[in-house]
Amino acid sequence: MNDLTNPVEVLGIDAGGTMTDTFFVRKDGTFVVGKAQSDADEANAVLESSKDALAHWGREIQDVYPEMVTCVFSGTAMLNRVVGRKGLRTGLIVSKGFEDFHRMGRALQCYLGYAFEDRLHLNTHRFDEPLVHIHDTRGVTERIDSKGVVVIPVRLHEARVAAEELIDQGVKAIAISLISSYLNGEHEQAVRDVVREVAAEKGQPDLPIFASVDYYPVRKESHRTNTTILEAYAAEPSRKILGQLSERMKDEGATFDLRVMATHGGTIGWKAKELARSLVSGPIGGVIGAKYLGEQLGYENIACSDIGGTSFDMALITQGNYSIHKDSDMARLVLSLPMVAMDSIGAGAGSFVRIDPYSMSLKLGPDSAGYRVGTCWPEGGLDTVSVTDCHIILGYLNPDNFLGGILDLDVPRARQCIQDQIATPLGLSVEDAASGVIELLDLSLRQHLRAMITGKGYSPRDFVCFSYGGGGPVHAYGYTKGLGFKETIVPAWAAGFSAFGCATADFEYRYDKSVDVGINDESTEEDIEVACQKLQSAWDVLKVKVLEEFAINGFDESAVTLKPGYSMQYMGQLNDLEIDSPVNSISGKEDWPALVQAFDDTYARVYADAARSPELGFGITGAILRGSVETSKPTIPTEPDAGPTPPENARLGSRKFYDNREWVEAELFQMEALLPGNNIVGPAVIESDATTYVVPTGFSTFLDEHRLFHLVEG
Amino acid sequence: MTEYTKKQVHDLVEGTLDWDSVHKMLSMPKDADRYKLYMEVLQDDASYDDKILLALGPRLNVVESATDGEIIVKCNCGHDFGDYRENWKLGANIYVRDTAEKMDQVYPRLMSPDTTWQVYREYSCPSCGSMLDIEAPTPWYPVMHDIQPDLKTFFEWVEMPAPAKI
């Protein structure tokens, strides 16, 4: 079916650790989701997954790629490279006397990313190997103080020796991060130029060199240095891989430019200078997708919940906006990447299940089966029961159509393993043991979801819960039960929702720069004037960078929409808020009241009106500049209402299903064949290749005209 | 239930086990036969046939004598320190670092204690010379008796048969 009036326009890719999902969208908003097991060769997995998706439309990659206009990639390879310490050998140049700070690491890095128990106990605390070996680190005499004033001029002859030694030792890239360079970049830039000269003299003019001031001119040395190193260590190899993927796609006729999802919620070109921003992107895609759906359909407050095989990721969208976390951490490293704020716990649909022999209680995770599924897939080589095994034996999942039937599952083996490892030690039947596991997981997810919402001072009653990810529709009823959400919504394309989200993201670069400004009652008019100029000059610096990034992707200034912003706080408080600037540029002190007003209003909205504290004075801590260009986005499908009764071709018969401690007959439906308006009362299981939507007794669901399922309790 | 091989326990003792496995061992409930495997690993490393009951240090163990069943402290080289209820240090060679010069040999000046406040006592085996323990007390402090094991209770805890003469 090659319909020229309705071409395929958008492709979203989510290359996870377990599965590589592709999400193709046609001009009219109809879409298909493809899945393939992830592969060491990412380009290969993407092409396989594309084939799988396009088979639904009876089309081939070679026909479709040429008609597409947008493709957004998100993947875990860069993160894995960092976790596995398999990055590019990088040299590091720091201020003399500070050579050891990178390998010492910030104290919290010794427990970051660990399960709660392991954070509490000192004996599990551990510092990972530093990204750069001390032998590949050099110091250069110089000092800039905390006001940005040169105290010791930089000794460039030392920089020359450092660069020569590092290059002779065989480093493949050099990162430079000097103390306080975010306030005054002269020294770093001078060192960078010397290193470039030396690289050229050594016959390596293309040696990648990263000075923190060119990338992340923000305060906090460890964060800034880690991020700058990652740019060399992890992102540089990804550039090659993305280049290859781009080439493979071009071979298949693609004319679009591959873009990558970035931590700040926008997408950037794969040739971007700041590619380390794409270190984590998969779960962020879902949040962006939820925001986009919310904008289109009028949901202002959304609780996003994404349950995959290994983790449960939650985020809140309030008044149509997600919040940005500035000192994020990833792979147990503190980073200065602005990141969409999310809470994650290490429990997912594939978590391992074990019994604690001392307390005889169930323990989920923290590790999970990943692509090896569980004991139900003998070829996966696992002996430990996973949550998936429990779902399989209780009739939640269809063993003959798991991931569209690409795996042969051995249900009796899973049953035996649950019997031996869980049921017998607990003195329970296999069914009760397995359903206990599922209840425990649901309970734990529910508590985290509730804690995230109430902990920020909100009530679930004000939120619509979006449930997605491969495991979302299986667990949606369980983790939303009794929380009192306004509505629980499961998109029919839940499994590909992150990829969908990536495709809805703006083509947007974001640059940040730290600024130090403080204005209170005692400040003079001149002080305010200086403060305003400081912010404007920071924006000017960032503007050059943003435009430079777009220029790499072939957009000139006229096509770019620039959105300036700033971080402001009441002086003396610890947390700042990000504000979209009410003015596009600042001419002088007359603009100050507007900046303050915008902050005051936001503060009252985020916290409470009474909590505002203007008497403390106002501080600006950072300048932000976002630049974006128009891109084609998927449209949300709209189909006519076909009435409450599902069509005959959607009915797949029934299956035994263990529900509330008894076996019942659950009616089965084919998700793709259901029509808008169809209403289904539990117990029912709605199947599709990529996911399974469970509606137990006591719940019902209907499909709306946008192919969103609404789960209704009672 | 977690289970580990003797090789993994050996590597743990050697300090060569990969961190992911160590982390798992620390976080997960302890495997039932860990103590048995641990003792086997230590036994393989010792030069004698007396059964190792408890480790006191990297090369020092409480053992059940193969000849008379007495419970004694032994160095890995086979040196016998006598009854386990007595302080083995009293039978060891002692070197006391009690001057600034002696401290300079182990730490840079000003990064070691003032020896009028604290000294290091190094205990080594009279037969093989291995350093078995170091203590860092005030100069006048008596020789420390580090551990007086209650072996009877201990073997009940680890659910293993206790030696006859405890």
Key structural traits:
heterodimer; A: 714 residues; alpha+beta; Nucleotidyltransferase, domain 5; Rossmann fold; nine-stranded mixed sheet; six-stranded mixed sheet; 31% helix; globular; B: 166 residues; three-stranded antiparallel sheet
- Give the termini distance of chain B in whole angstroms: 32 Å
Strand content range of chain B: 15-25%
Structural class category of chain B: alpha+beta
Largest pleated sheet of chain A: 9 strands, mixed
Main sheet record of chain B = 4 strands, antiparallel
Label the structural class of chain A: alpha+beta
Helix content class of chain B: 25-40%
User: How many domain units of chain A?
Assistant: 6
Write down how many β-strands of chain A occur, each being a DSSP E stretch of 2 or more residues: 35
What percentage of the residues of chain A does DSSP assign to strands (E)? 25-35%
Order of helices and strands of chain B: HHHEEEEEHEEH
Give the distance, in angstroms, between the N- and C-terminal Cα atoms of chain A: 43 Å
Q: Supply the CATH class of the largest domain in chain A.
A: Alpha Beta
User: What is the 3D shape of chain A?
Assistant: globular
Most extensive chain interface and residues per partner = A-B, 15 and 10 residues
Average pLDDT score of chain A: 89
Architecture overview:
The complex is a heterodimer of chains A (714) and B (166). Chain A has 17 helices and 35 strands. Chain A folds into 6 domains: 8-81 and 239-278, Nucleotidyltransferase, domain 5, CATH 3.30.420; 84-235, Rossmann fold (3-Layer(aba) Sandwich); 283-337 and 461-504, 2-Layer Sandwich (Nucleotidyltransferase, domain 5), CATH 3.30.420; 351-440, no CATH class; 507-629, Dna Ligase, domain 1 (2-Layer Sandwich), CATH 3.30.1490; 648-713, no CATH class. In chain A, α3 packs across α9 (221-251), α11 (387-393) packs across α13 and α13 (430-455) packs across α14 (472-480). With 714 residues, chain A is of the alpha+beta class. In chain A, the strands form 9 sheets. In chain A, strands 13, 14, 15, 20, 23, 24, 31, 34 and 35 form a 9-stranded mixed sheet that branches. Chain A has a 6-stranded mixed sheet with strand order 3-2-1-4-11-12. A 4-stranded parallel sheet of chain A has the order 6-5-9-10, sandwiched between helices. In chain A, β11 (258-261) and β12 (267-269) form a beta hairpin. Chain B is of the alpha+beta class and 166 residues long. Chain B is 25% helix and 22% strand. A 4-stranded antiparallel sheet of chain B has the order 1-2-3-4. Chain B has a 3-stranded antiparallel sheet with strand order 5-6-7. Chain B starts with 5 loop residues before the first helix and ends in a 9-residue tail after the last helix. The chains are: A alpha+beta (714), B alpha+beta (166). Chains A and B meet through β21 of A and α2 of B.
